[in-house]
Amino acid sequence: MNSGCTSRDVLQSYFDLLGELMKFNIDAFKRFNKYVNTPEKFQAFLTQINSSLVDSNMLVRCIVLSLDRFESQTEDVKVVEVLSECSLLSYMARVENRLSFLFRLINIINVQTLTQENVSCLNTSLVILMLARRKAKLPFYLNALREKEYAEKYPGCMLNNFHNLLRFWQHHYLNKDKDSTCLENSSCIPFSYWKETVSVLLGLDRTSLCAIVRYIDEPFEDLDRDLLED
């Protein structure tokens, strides 16, 4: 963070390494809080993440996954202490901040611009929604996406884009065992749950609270039904 690094490749490597060092490591979050110990330092750290989200999204994913793990370990005194004191975990625990990341992760990619470098943004957005689904909060998140579209006067834009991205995801990951294994191993979420969540999101039943299509008003529905069909 203090290196003044401008190279995207190097910056992404820094973020990826930091994410791997911190993932599920309560001591690492405690150490982070020791060094990033003022509001100014923390804001500078957030600014770096937010200004390079394609590069930093793996770190965001690691923080989200770690928070979810730690919240299930509240019988551990050390975990409870770090959860209450760590600025980074407290920040990510706030739903509005997770939603902010979700909005931007979905908006910075589309099927036409997907690359090996930025497809991870799609997987990070899925991690946020899978963890929400585990807690029966998926409808809340989908409705928040809909409200965001209307607030910005682009109804259907984000959700149509996300729907098409998820169809790409199915086409890509359901046919590549190696890539699906990597997703499972890196997230500690069974690939079957990844598949199931994507299938639920892509459901065509408008009465389903967990289907994207429910949150797109019909006049604005623009799903690319021919996407990737041979």
Automatic annotation (TrEMBL):
Domain of life: Eukaryota
UniProt feature coiled coil, ranges: none
One GO location term (cellular component): Cul4A-RING E3 ubiquitin ligase complex
GO biological process terms held by the UniProt record: ubiquitin-dependent protein catabolic process
GO molecular function: phosphatase binding
Protein name in UniProt: Transient receptor potential cation channel, subfamily C, member 4 associated protein a
The organism of origin for this protein: Oryzias sinensis
Lineage start: Eukaryota, Metazoa, Chordata, Craniata, Vertebrata
